[in-house]
Design a protein that fits this description.
It is a single chain. About 45% of the residues lie in helices and about 15% in strands. It has a two-stranded antiparallel sheet with strand order 1-2. The protein has a two-stranded parallel ribbon with strand order 3-4. The model has no long low-confidence stretch (mean pLDDT about 90). The chain is globular, with a radius of gyration of 15 Å. The chain is an alpha+beta fold and about 160 residues long. It has one domain: 2-Layer Sandwich (Nucleotidyltransferase, domain 5), CATH 3.30.420.10. It comes from Anaerocellum danielii. This is IS30 family transposase.
């Protein structure tokens, strides 16, 4: 059961390549989500808004400042309609697969960073029929090489 002091997982799914990123933040406050995107912007620099053209989130209070933060960073933020998870279907699918390894009710602070990293790598290395059985990781790296230098990509993958 989620306790007030427990960490929270934030998942981002890139639409075109289905590449997934899992981040751990200290709680459900919007300031933690804001800090996460500022950290990503520092890694990507002026390429941030090419990688994150837009972000769609649910209506949780932790995302209340997301639109404002993304606007400041040169991207756009969108919110789904209440109780409309199907509007973020790709991300919901990722969350469902993650739950195989990180079930609801398990305290996030008890899960090692390495375990979360392994789940993320497993997800991103799954062969996808939509990509002719290439993985999301393969497709994501091809896309990122067109936007960023290799060093930026490596730093992003380490942080992710």
């Amino acid at each position: 059961m989620l306790t007030p002091s427990d960490n929270v997982l934030v998942t981002l799914t890139e639409r075109k390549t289905r590449f997934g990123m899992i981040f751990v933040i200290p709680g459900r406050e919007s300031s933690y989500v804001k800090d996460l995107f500022i950290k990503l912007q520092k890694i990507l620099g002026d390429k941030f808004n090419k990688v994150f053209k837009s972000v769609t989130s649910d209506n949780g209070s932790e995302f209340s400042e997301l639109g404002k933060v993304l606007n400041e960073l040169g991207s756009e933020g969108y919110y789904t309609h209440p109780y409309s998870a199907y509007e973020r279907g790709t991300n919901e699918r990722m969350n469902g697969l993650i739950r195989r390894f990180l079930p609801k009710g398990k305290e996030i602070r008890e899960i090692s960073k390495e375990a979360i990293k392994r789940v993320q790598e497993w997800y991103n290395r799954l062969p996808r029929r939509i990509f002719n059985y290439k993985s999301s990781m393969e497709k994501f790296l091809v896309e990122m090489k067109e936007i960023c230098e290799i060093g930026v990509i490596e730093k992003l993958l380490v942080e992710v």
